[in-house]
Write a structure and sequence with these properties.
The complex is a heterotetramer, with two copies of chain A (160 residues) and two copies of chain B (415 residues).
Chain A lengths: L16 H8 L12 E7 L4 E9 L5 E9 L2 H14 L4 H14 L31 H15 L6 E2 L2
Helix pairs in contact in A: 1-2, 2-4, 3-4
Chain B lengths: L3 H16 L7 E2 L2 E2 L1 E2 L10 H13 L10 H21 L7 E4 L2 H13 L8 E5 L8 H10 L2 E5 L9 H7 L4 E7 L11 H10 L4 E4 L11 H4 L3 E5 L10 E5 L1 H6 L10 E5 L2 E4 L13 H17 L1 H20 L4 E4 L8 E6 L4 H9 L3 E2 L1 E3 L4 H7 L4 E5 L6 H18 L1
Helix pairs in contact in B: 2-10, 3-10, 11-14
Classes of the chains: A alpha+beta (160), B alpha/beta (415).
The complex binds pyridoxal-5'-phosphate (PLP) (2 copies).
One pyridoxal-5'-phosphate (PLP) sits at the interface of chains C and B.
Chain lengths: 160, 415, 415, 160
């Protein structure tokens, strides 16, 4: 009864180079002083904690995004990829990405949302998370904070 | 290593114990399970699992209130477990053994029934920076309810209590001391007996949170001298949903009931109600009958192995683990007290504990990551959490070796 | 009997169900066990016993706080059970399903967390003369703590609530109504929906003690409209040490926590603590993980049989039992309400209930004797207790026939 | 799997004629107005409840005894037999009977007491109770009330 090392054993399916790169060197890390929207994401059970800042233009496109806080590689990389992606996009488009990511990660209830034929691009790097159910919340933390920031909900979001 | 021989014979014993635990016989992601999370919740030996199932198959009924055969059998088994637990911690009387749902409930019971009526604004309760949330929040709640204040004994860099500060804080404004026996985050064993003596010199009662004490050392509540001792079944190889509050009879006698309901009364009318005697006064409603019976079986099991044997083995293994883990470059240990039991917290390079947990799990190694319900300890070290490996009687050196291999893999992955 | 045919097919089903319950396959004093004490605690089907044992053998770990495989499995199973229970009673949200140790704790939680902060001297709580002690004593305790007063809706000779008196007592001084769904001593089904409507018309919240409701009829908390609904796992074929408090989300949101400890907080520091969201705010400490998972299996079992099927069968059997028992000279029935479920209390000649219990037990028939934790009901009838036969889905006509034979033997013995 | 009726099946081992007789016609039933000692016995779990009265002479012998309350056949018969027996006895002798009955009924801890070579006489009718463990408390209720009355303990005795 031992050690059937298979290919996924090195966990490169989860910790892809792109993920590790964004975790080590998160883009748009830091407080955004002139943010128009802001929300906290907290995962009380594993200690991930981040604050997402957005500056939204009059035309509802995202002018700037940033985040601070501490978290695991997955949640930091996810926040970094998120901020990197959405700057410049109209918020309706951002909503489509949100739905697509939730679906892609198999979040319960996400299937009901519009599928949309979005090219996820770099976000595909998060695909491996789906096989690690206890880590899905890490990957979605920033996304849910963003969602709640755009909804202008003043309270922190928790993924638990 | 001078005790290599003794150790080899130990390993043979441990191999036998491992066989008693069905959960350990499985593989995770193709690797044999290495369960290093017993401080969160221990696995159960087959004898506990089977006792509970056999009880349900043959003997179940409600206790105390019935004349029929099953009710009698259930009552005998349930009350028999109480006797076992009394013996296990050497309480003076079976009336001092209150069944609760766990350590958390035991502590809340004392906070609400003993402390709440006693406290007023300006009174102090003394706890420590090492405590589990279950030995902090109940005191915060009762402080808020009464205007009392919670004082905190600080720790040093090794995770040991600052006893000078304890002495300073222990004034005659203190009404109650609440202290953990063993820290679940750092493994520190606190000098509980000494603390009880100092508190009693000022007539201050002491509650000991024994959740991490009972599984790892022989507890004698009379020798410790504490007024209350709280612990959980599921951390001592017994069922979830069970726990014990030991309390000195004189104190329990004087306390009002915590919950109202069936079995905790002698007489109920709308004009007034007469409460039952100890221990029933504190056991309102149908208890966790099957769970308590399982807890009795866990006590039997622990006693058959022997607490001294367990303490010795775990102490040897903790030394081995700490030594091996220290050899890894980039390891930071948290909790390096002189007197420790069964737990090592650590971080590796700048890998987040959560990632470490996932990578280890993928190699069959189950550890806990995060704040371990001891956020003040994490704040002290200015970290969000640690990775924690905790030991039980069924762990062996091979488990540690697999842990080390897995940690090195994690390091490679994040290099 | 017009429904004889339907009944025969019923009996075939019931025979299958009986096979699901290991405890029923035994003899007591040489007689096949006739278990007529399910209102105290029901037997468990093998699927519940096995689910708990298999969980312990393969999947156990602490929930919520772990990244490793076992912790994930345990959390999924534990939270999955919550979803099942939500569906079972048709709660609007899973956040409204709080795991407790039983009905008694559920009611105490509401008394302390909802009512205590709200009540002051002169306020009234309204309960009824039918209540189980678990739905009396918690209110007496909170009345003593706050100076509020407990008012009691009286019953009539058949054991039915006097609804005119209810209307009279329901003034705007009443802050809370606590009422049983089904009386455990007399079997009376109370008109809960009507009572909720009347109370809500005055903005008074209502707790329903559903310990004897859930096992016997399809519960829809949204249809009942009540604010809280409390019940126990062990009366619905699930494990002891489990219970549910259903509460409307808006009310639960506003309530302070009942107990402090692990898992019920987001952040703890000695400067202040942030409580977790629902339902975790009310689940301090390690829950009864295996018990809750077993309760989920019990829900599956109940749903596979079908609550309507159960209600129909038990109703037929209750009629049969009452009819047969009434034929015995010297029988006095207690509880003859028009709308009843699953329970018949009685006395025979001047034989004390306790003696009756022993004699029946000796013939394999398990009934409960005494006050059934409903002393006010006993006071109403001016008796110290009754003998009570209570039914579950696994009882059949042969059980009743054996009961009747045994009662006649008792009569001979004491003649 | 059925009905192996044996001889004990009619339960005459428990409900002997003498027991039933004393249960139906309890001796010394009723309040004793000039009692010097009194104690309550309560079995909260089955509802038995009795009050035992004693009048004790200066020389510590029992001048009179009586009881009231309600209980099952076993507890009433036991109280009746008890009162019938002890009237006229010195209280030291009564203590010996108490010990002997406790032992005879197998009450835990009773083995330590002095055995004594007492002839239990009619009390032997209680022997059958030993085989019905859930009824032992009924048989001992009056005895424990008596014990506590003689100890002059003011609080009710409970057998639970
Ligand atoms: C109507 C009623 N309410 C409350 C309870 C108390 O339930 P538990 O003892 O499981 O807390 C019971 C069961 O004894 C009951 O029948
Ligand atoms: C030191 C300590 N105290 C209290 C607790 C709480 O125990 P439980 O969750 O079983 O109530 C724990 C376990 O998590 C612990 O380790």
């Amino acid at each position: 009864m031992n050690t059937a090392f298979d290919n996924s054993d090195d966990m490169r399916d989860l910790y892809r180079e792109l993920i590790l790169d964004h975790a080590r060197n998160p883009r748009h890390f830091g407080k955004l002083d002139d943010a128009t929207h802001c929300a906290d994401g907290i995962n009380p059970l594993c200690g991930d904690k981040l604050r997402l800042y957005l500056r939204v233009n009059e035309d509802q496109s995202i002018a700037a995004a940033g985040f601070e806080g501490s978290g695991c590689a997955i949640s930091v990389a996810s926040a970094s990829l998120l901020t990197d992606l959405i700057i410049g996009l109209p918020s309706s488009q951002v909503q489509n990405y949100y739905n697509a990511v939730m679906q892609r990660l198999g979040v319960p209830g996400a299937d009901d949302a519009e599928p949309g034929s979005i090219d996820l691009g770099k976000l595909k790097a998060l695909d491996g998370v789906r096989e690690y159910p206890s880590r899905v919340k890490c990957a979605t933390l920033a996304w849910q904070a963003m969602n709640s920031a755009l909804d202008n909900q003043p309270t922190p979001v928790s993924t638990e | 290593m001078t005790n290599a021989q003794e150790n080899r014979s130990n390993e043979a014993c441990v191999e036998n114990y491992r066989q008693d635990f069905p959960a350990l016989q499985q593989t995770i992601s193709g690797h044999p399970l290495v369960y290093l999370d017993s401080a969160s919740s221990a696995q159960q030996p087959a004898c506990v699992i089977d006792t509970v199932a056999e009880y349900q198959r043959n003997d179940h009924s409600n206790v105390h209130r019935g004349v029929h055969t099953l009710s009698h059998r259930a009552t005998e088994a349930y009350e028999g477990a109480r006797d076992k637990i009394q013996g296990f911690i050497n309480a003076a009387s079976r009336n001092e053994i209150i069944n609760t749902s766990g350590t958390t409930e035991s502590i809340n019971l004392v906070a609400q029934s003993y402390c709440r009526p006693l406290l007023s604004a300006g009174d102090k309760i003394l706890a420590t920076e090492l405590e589990h949330h279950s030995n902090i929040v109940p005191w915060q709640l009762v402080c808020e309810q009464t205007g009392a204040e919670l004082l905190v004994v600080p720790i040093d860099d090794r995770g040991q209590l600052n006893l000078d500060e304890f002495d300073n804080l222990l004034t005659d404004e203190v009404r109650f001391v609440a202290i953990g026996h063993v820290s679940n985050a750092l493994g520190t064993i606190n000098p509980v007996k000494e603390i009880v003596e100092k508190a009693h010199a000022l007539d201050i009662p002491v509650l000991v949170d024994g959740a991490q004490g009972v599984p790892h050392m022989q507890i004698d509540v009379q020798d410790l001298g504490c007024d209350f001792y709280a612990f959980s079944g599921h951390k001592m190889y017994g069922p979830t949903g069970t726990g014990i509050l030991y309390g000195r009879e004189k104190l329990l006698e004087a306390m009002p009931p915590y919950k109202g309901g069936g079995d905790m009364i002698i007489e109920v009318s709308f004009d007034g109600t007469v409460f039952n005697e100890l221990p029933y006064k504190f056991e309102a409603g149908t208890p966790n009958i099957s769970g308590v019976i399982g807890l009795g079986a866990a006590v039997d099991y622990l006693q058959s192995v022997g607490l001294q044997q367990i303490a010795q083995h775990e102490s040897w293994l903790l030394d081995y683990m700490t030594r091996e883990i220290s050899k890894i470059d980039g390891i930071r240990l948290f909790g390096t007290a002189e007197n420790k039991a069964s737990v090592q917290s650590f971080l590796l390079d700048d890998i987040h504990a959560h990632d470490l947990g996932t990578i280890l799990d993928h190699q069959g190694v189950a550890i806990r990551t995060g704040h371990h319900c001891a956020m003040p300890v994490m704040s002290f070290f200015r970290i969000p959490g640690t990775a924690r490996a905790s030991l039980a009687l069924y762990n062996n050196a091979a488990d540690i070796d697999q842990l080390i291999v897995a940690l090195k893999k994690a390091q490679q992955l994040f290099a």
